[in-house]
């Protein structure tokens, strides 16, 4: 039996068209070659197909097929390489769906056990991101008398642009009592500390922190959830889920090829984000350099996660003009209130008829802008969430904010400036976490291997 999740002969498999009603039957076709992934697997074998498609994606081409939607490329067929200089899921184009998970390592785990877990996670993630099962024959090819190695809900689904990104929290280097469980204390990045308390924080410990994190992004929620579920399962007895978050819509673009999406306030979000094509800025502001401390983190980044509840019922009663004043951009076009179109640079000096600045002094974009923050930028990669409702009948909705930066100080500086942000009246930060994201993984290595060298 083929180990491809999309293998044609598998009675349990579902065609992309069946799995995504409404998508055109040719949704598995590779636009570059006109060959479907199913055919590719048939001709070349699954591993070769992954490599071919992955190589194209690595060259900066997100391999995608056209579907029925307004000339848009269907993301269903995208495959991103797992191995490379940097982990995928940072500058790769932000996918539509997220499952993010933070883990606590179990007290019984030792250094060898931690390395073994990271090795198994790496092997599984490398396969899953190529559209394969956790292991060959994982869901239905094993013994009738043993639980399947793969949980099976992604059988028949394509890779869907899945990226899996791993991070290490402060607790990996010293636990709450200060104990150095894994002999890593001396290698802790000095900046890897729980974030300081910011004005207005209403953090809930149960949805904050974590020793390890996994960010799974995909264009199909079932694929992202399958990845987290199976990686959590692999960790059983070694690390347990502390909290996890689903995101249903990206709130950022990370490539100039992507249209700017909208957040739950209805505004375009991601216009001024750092984009993959800005290679000098990415290098300067996102990747940790070998000359930074510590060297094992070179090629990596720092990831900040904030669960930001949006009080949307109150927001929905705010006049349009005030909403725009609070953000500093127009709601329709996303243009700065100083004039121009979406991608015009805001002019914070420009005044209107009353001599007041056209972009309010407390507007979000002014306070978050690099000119207010010593040039600090970040790559935002957050998602909208709605997790049911509270007892008052309000949606438990908001922005699961994720940002990658070369130093946590970049986030700290911007978040400190945002203390006077007019939007704060409609926001509540309830979850917070920080992770050091190791650089990319070479074949034959495990993620973060340099930390243990
Ligand atoms: C729910 C909370 C938030 C909402 C609704 C929100 C919304 C927005 C919107 C609509 C924009 C303008 C479009 C764009 O350039 O992307 C923007 C820009 C930005 N936001 Fe936020 N944001 C939120 C939280 C944050 C946080 C926590 C940070 C970082 C601490 C942040 C940092 C930025 C930055 C750096 C920009 C670009 C500013 C520029 O260079 O013009 N935002 N945000």
Automatic annotation (TrEMBL):
PANTHER family linked: DEFERROCHELATASE, DEFERROCHELATASE/PEROXIDASE
Keywords noted in UniProt: Heme, Iron, Lyase, Metal-binding, Oxidoreductase, Peroxidase, Signal
Q: Name one GO cellular component term.
A: cell envelope
Q: Which organism is it from?
A: Agromyces cerinus subsp. cerinus
State if Signal is listed as a keyword: yes
State if Nuclease is listed as a keyword: no
Family of the protein in this entry = Belongs to the DyP-type peroxidase family.
Q: Which GO terms describe its biological process?
A: iron import into cell
UniProt catalytic activity: heme b + 2 H(+) = protoporphyrin IX + Fe(2+)
Region of interest: Disordered: 1-31
Which cofactors does this protein require? heme b
Q: What is this protein called?
A: Deferrochelatase
Domain (Dyp-type peroxidase C-terminal): give its ranges: 260-441
Which Gene Ontology molecular-function terms are recorded?
ferrochelatase activity; heme binding; metal ion binding; peroxidase activity
Tell where it localizes.
Cell envelope
Which EC number applies? Answer: 1.11.1.-
Taxonomic lineage of the native organism? Bacteria, Bacillati, Actinomycetota, Actinomycetes, Micrococcales
InterPro entries found in the cross-reference section: Dimeric_a/b-barrel, Dyp_perox_C, Dyp_perox_N, Dyp_peroxidase, EfeB/EfeN, TAT_signal
Tell me the NCBIfam families matching this sequence.
Answer: Dyp_perox_fam, tat_substr_1
Q: Where is the Dyp-type peroxidase N-terminal domain?
A: 87-248
Record text on cofactor binding: Binds 1 heme b (iron(II)-protoporphyrin IX) group non-covalently per subunit.
């Amino acid at each position: 039996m083929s180990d491809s999740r999309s293998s044609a002969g598998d009675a349990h498999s579902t065609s992309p068209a069946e799995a995504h009603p409404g998508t055109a039957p040719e949704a598995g076709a590779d636009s570059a070659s006109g060959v479907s992934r199913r055919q590719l697997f048939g001709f070349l074998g699954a591993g070769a197909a992954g490599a071919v498609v992955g190589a194209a994606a690595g060259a900066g081409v997100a391999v995608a097929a056209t579907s029925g939607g307004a000339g848009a490329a269907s993301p269903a067929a995208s495959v991103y390489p797992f191995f490379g200089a940097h982990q995928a899921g940072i500058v790769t184009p932000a996918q539509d769906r997220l499952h993010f998970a933070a883990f606590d390592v179990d007290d019984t785990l030792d250094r060898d056990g931690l390395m073994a877990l990271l090795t198994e996670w790496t092997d599984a993630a490398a396969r899953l991101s190529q559209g394969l099962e956790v292991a060959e024959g994982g869901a239905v090819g094993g013994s009738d008398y043993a639980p399947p190695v793969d949980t099976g809900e992604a059988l028949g689904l394509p890779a869907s642009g899945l990226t899996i990104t791993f991070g290490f929290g402060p607790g990996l280097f010293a636990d709450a009592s200060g104990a150095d469980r894994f002999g890593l204390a001396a290698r802790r990045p000095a900046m890897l500390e729980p974030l300081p308390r910011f004005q207005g924080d209403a953090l809930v410990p149960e949805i904050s922190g974590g020793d390890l994190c996994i960010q799974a992004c995909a264009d199909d929620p079932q694929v992202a959830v399958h990845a987290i579920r199976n990686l959590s399962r692999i960790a059983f007895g070694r690390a347990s889920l502390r909290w996890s978050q689903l995101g249903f819509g990206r709130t950022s673009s990370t490539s100039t090829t992507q249209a700017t999406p909208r957040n739950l306030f209805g505004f375009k979000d991601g216009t001024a984000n750092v984009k993959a094509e800005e290679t000098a800025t990415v290098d300067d502001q996102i990747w940790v350099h070998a000359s930074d401390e510590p060297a094992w983190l070179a090629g990596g980044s720092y990831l900040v996660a904030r669960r930001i509840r949006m009080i949307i019922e109150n927001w929905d009663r705010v006049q349009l003009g005030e909403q725009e004043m609070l953000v500093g951009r127009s709601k329709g076009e996303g243009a700065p209130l100083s004039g121009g179109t979406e991608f015009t640079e805001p002019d914070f000096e420009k005044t209107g008829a009353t001599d007041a600045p056209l972009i309010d002094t407390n507007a979000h974009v002014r306070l978050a802008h690099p000119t207010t923050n010593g040039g600090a930028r970040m790559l935002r990669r957050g998602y909208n969430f709605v997790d049911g409702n509270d007892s008052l009948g309000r949606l438990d909705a908001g922005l699961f904010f994720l940002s990658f930066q070369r130093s946590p100080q970049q986030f700290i500086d911007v978040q400190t400036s945002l203390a006077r942000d007019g939007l704060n009246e409609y926001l509540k930060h309830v979850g917070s976490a920080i992770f050091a994201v190791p650089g990319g993984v070479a074949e034959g290595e495990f993620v973060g291997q340099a930390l243990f060298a």
